[in-house]
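Need the bound structure for flavin mononucleotide, inputs here:
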Amino acid sequence: MESTDPPGKTFNEREGSFLPFTLQISGTMSMSHKNMKILVIMGSPRKGNTTRIVEEIGNEMKKLGDVEISTINIRDIHLEQCRGCHVCFFKGEDSCPLKDDRPIIEEQLLHADGVIFASPNYVSSVPALFKNFIDRFAYAGHRPRFFHQRAMAIVTSAGPGGLSDAQHYISASLGAFGFRFVHTAGFLQPPFPIPESWQKDNQEKVRAAARIFFSACGASRLPAPTLREVMGFRIMQILLRKVMGTSLEKYYPSDCLYWKSHGGLDPGSYYFTGENVGIGKKITIRVLEPVIRWQINRILAGAISASEGR
Ligand SMILES: Cc1cc2nc3c(=O)[nH]c(=O)nc-3n(C[C@H](O)[C@H](O)[C@H](O)COP(=O)(O)O)c2cc1C
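Answer from helper R.:
Posting the output first, comments after.
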């Protein structure tokens, strides 16, 4: 463990600053976007390959414009283990019994122009440390919110086995929270020296990732939600509309309120950032929707009966 920070302390207690974990990178302006704020969520339990690759990407981004990069090393922050109480789903995240840095991290995420989620591949997924980070924000899967944050997944791995699974896990799970994934990249980086050809390949991927992410974070237009994300939105919309007024509504007060106040329950809406859902995705959803409705009706009928004790 490389952290020198006292365990159990919040950012506020550490003089209200991210300084112990912050890497400030700035350079010359070459785009209209002034001082781009990039947040790195580092999911490795150690300062190793993943940290180095992300630092290289940061240095490349610095060459492209005025970029400020802050890093949250999950291993260094006070983030308790999710206890599975479901309170964040049912009553809202403010009622979570765990009192730690989670709310302040959400603020940091919401204030970033772009978020780089970086992780080693651990058995086709992410380390438990990073998995817990994602679990602690699981309420955002019910009530998505990070629509203005462009995101990128960076994964390092000893070999190709499970690398794309880990990349996909990060972009699919966090994409459901609203993050607009514009790129994911996998790097072959075993814990021993690698041949020159691999190094060259990694360097090219570093430069490509920096270029793509810099331009996405500087663009004014929001990236469109994926078909999977639009589908997830419609499923939740149908589910909540059906649940309202039934005995199951008491399990979803926060979701119902959130979706209502964000216009998500309007049957004509396809995503929270509605206007950028293309016609192709809308038609696909319309074609698949009868099957989805049938499935939801079937599941809900049983769940409503069970919750009414019938
Ligand atoms: C517990 C553990 C599980 C791992 N699982 C895999 C794996 O399934 N496939 C793989 O190719 N590499 C695997 N690796 C290797 C790491 O993904 C790889 O060396 C990575 O670059 C380490 O990143 P780090 O230096 O930032 O910790 C594993 C390493 C550890 C410690």
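Comments: The longest strand covers residues 180-188. The chain has two domains: 19-218, 227-307.
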